[in-house]
Design a protein that fits this description.
The chain has one domain: TIM Barrel (Alpha-Beta Barrel), CATH 3.20.20. It has 18 helices and 13 strands. The strands form 3 sheets. Strands 3, 4, 5, 6, 9, 10, 11, 12 and 13 form a 9-stranded parallel β-sheet that branches. Strand 7, helix 6 and strand 8 form a beta-alpha-beta unit.
């Protein structure tokens, strides 16, 4: 029987237990206070006993590629070396630390954030292929703005090398694992997805891109363990015909295992950046908040367009209602196929469910949004076999991030419960 407290070997690194803080948007940027802001976000999870703490998506190039405001760039070795203060702090608690590497490609702010486009008129999106017809339609309607640069074969190799160099900087700064943002519509996902990838060179097979990233990481950073998200697009809207099925995702995982990836994180969602990755309630409180109205208007190109985005958000909330542990079945199929650890995240909230998943559907369990509400959540989950996260998946934490606001819980009832638990000593590991 696999227990939550059991250690887990990922490559040459031993993670002290099987609970991890999944990558989240920290919105820490690259300013003088970036390291302190990251410590504020990540230290509580390590102090509370999380076996693995994942820093959220960081961008491997110095210009463009950010999917949201305030993302941190890790192309500069001088800046990344400063992050050694973060990894040293988290290691003091016995945690292992991962950094997620990303480039947004067609999902970048150059596409969807009107104010950012106005400030950076010369930026082009990096693209795997010409944007699909459906996205070009949204461009013509004014909801998106595409000026893509389709990567040449040589440029794909250059981009993979940027991932390798960023991994090297991170390993030098004390990060224990490298995590690729292989899903959620970033450029790695775009290479894998038949919806985006219509290339006629060797990278028409998107796994080839992950293969050369793997090789670049090994060339630059040696044997640092490498894991990646792997997408299935089974939740795509019916109008989308080209997509990754669950069977496709399982086969992708088998091939990545053969290539040498050290762990895999299978996830399902649509081909779009929508509520398929944050399933739950429509965040009405966040959309109504007057403090964010101007930020929404700046991001989406005016109040009317912001209102239309909110309407689409409401429809998505009905389409992608919360489903507990929605990736568990996919993870189980992958685990039956590969030889490396499989990590499950997405809708996991309760310790009893975690205990059922471990050794069956997966080898390790992660949570994301619940950490916005309870930064010290591991203390409760590790100590209490009946504990459940307080997060109710209302998504009021997520929507304001399009304005550059930090990811924090904003729901009074949830915050009140966290306060009650803290007063009762539920997060005190010394008891």
């Amino acid at each position: 029987m696999v227990r939550l407290s059991d250690p887990l070997r990922i490559g040459d690194v031993t993670v002290p237990n099987r609970l991890y803080r999944a990558p989240l948007l920290e919105c820490a940027g690259n300013g003088d206070d970036a390291v302190d802001r990251l410590i504020d976000h990540l230290e509580p999870a390590a102090a509370a006993g999380a076996g693995l703490v994942c820093q959220g998506a960081t961008i491997v190039r110095g210009e463009g590629g950010c999917a949201a405001p305030g993302m941190t760039h890790v192309h500069d070795p001088d800046f990344v070396s400063r992050l050694g203060r973060l990894t040293d702090r988290l290691h003091e608690y016995g945690a292992t630390v991962a950094i997620q590497l990303e480039h947004g490609g067609l999902r970048s702010m150059e596409t969807w954030h009107a104010g950012y486009r106005d400030d950076h008129p010369d930026l082009q999106q990096l693209a795997v292929s010409r944007p699909p017809p459906l996205l070009r339609t949204l461009d013509r309607l004014g909801f998106l703005d595409y000026d893509p640069h389709v990567l040449t074969t040589d440029e794909v190799y250059d981009l993979a090398d940027d991932f390798g160099r960023a991994a090297d900087h991170a390993a030098d700064a004390g990060y224990d694992l490298i995590h690729l943002a292989g899903a959620n519509m970033g450029i790695v996902h775009q290479f894998l997805s038949p919806f985006y990838n219509r290339r006629d060179d060797e990278f028409g097979d998107g796994v080839r891109f992950l293969e050369i990233i793997h090789d670049a990481v090994r060339d630059h950073a040696g044997d640092v363990p490498l894991l990646t998200k792997v997408p299935a697009e089974t939740a795509a809207p019916p109008v989308v015909r080209r997509r990754l099925s669950r069977a496709d995702a399982v086969e992708l995982c088998r091939r990545l295992d053969d290539i040498g990836y050290d762990a895999l994180v299978p996830v399902s969602g649509s081909v779009f950046w929508d509520m398929s990755i944050v399933r739950g309630q429509f965040p009405s409180r966040a959309w109504r908040d007057e403090g964010f109205r101007e930020g929404y208007a700046e991001a989406f190109g005016g109040r009317l367009r912001a209102g239309l985005v909110a309407l689409a958000n409401r429809v998505q909330a009905r389409w992608y209602d919360f489903d507990p542990a929605w990736n568990a079945d996919l993870c189980r199929r992958v685990r039956d196929t590969v030889s490396v650890p499989v990590c499950c995240e997405g809708g996991v909230r309760e310790r009893p469910r975690i205990d059922r998943l471990l050794g069956d559907a997966c080898d390790m369990v992660g949570m994301a949004r619940p950490f916005y509400a309870e930064p010290e959540l591991p203390a409760r989950l590790l100590a209490d076999a009946e504990a459940s996260a307080v997060c109710d998946s209302c998504n009021n934490c997520a929507v304001p991030q399009v304005t550059g606001a930090p990811g924090v819980c904003r729901t009074p009832a949830v915050l009140e419960e966290v306060g009650r638990l803290r007063k009762a000593g539920a997060y005190d590991r010394s008891r």
